[in-house]
Amino acid sequence: MTIFPPDPNLAALRLELARLRSERGWSYDELARRSGLARRTLIEIEQVSAYT
To answer: What pTM value is reported for the model?
Structure first.
């Protein structure tokens, strides 16, 4: 029997990412540098455009 993880809550991820980035005063460039994710990916996550 295969057990799959639950679907991610993308709305919660988007809101939490935006909140934490804002709280720390980080730009997308700073978060990209620290996370290893592309700046464009982070913008798309926060703005949901790639996930709707």
So the answer is: 0.72
